[in-house]
Amino acid sequence: VVEHELALVKVRATQRTRPEIVSIAEMHRGRIVDLGDDAVIVEVVGEPAEVDRLVELLRGFGIKELVRTGSVVMSRGSGSIEEQVKR
């Protein structure tokens, strides 16, 4: 099974902390989707444990807002869930 989740994390940022936040996001396969004067929005997609790790690292900067999709899953291989349900 392939399992992924999407999260958007708005983190407090200053000119001093912004480069560190960007670096942490990039090291954990995150992407910066907005750079504001006092906040950065990080997008991360991956397994729930990967999302959890990045959220915990960003927590130290002060999370202003956090939204998560929850897990979405799909079975590996050429078969589909629809085919399995029809059986």
Brief summary:
The chain is α+β, with helices and mostly antiparallel strands and 87 residues long. The chain contains 3 helices and 5 strands.
Primary descriptors:
87 residues, 3 helices, 5 strands, 32% helix, five-stranded antiparallel sheet, single chain, alpha+beta, elongated
Model description:
The protein has 87 residues and is α+β, with helices and mostly antiparallel strands. The chain has 3 helices and 5 strands; from the N terminus they run E-H-E-E-H-E-E-H. Strands 1, 2, 3, 4 and 5 form a 5-stranded antiparallel beta sheet that branches. A hairpin with a 3-residue loop joins strand 2 (30-35) and strand 3. The radius of gyration is 16 Å and the shape is elongated. The chain starts with a strand and ends with a helix. The relative contact order is 0.29. The mean pLDDT is 93.
Topology:
Elements: E1 2-12, H1 18-27, E2 30-35, E3 39-46, H2 48-59, E4 63-68, E5 72-74, H3 81-86
Antiparallel strand pairs: 1-3, 1-4, 1-5, 2-3
Please trace the helix and strand order, writing H or E for each element: EHEEHEEH
Radius of gyration: 16 Å
Total strands: the figure is 5
Major sheet details: 5 strands, antiparallel
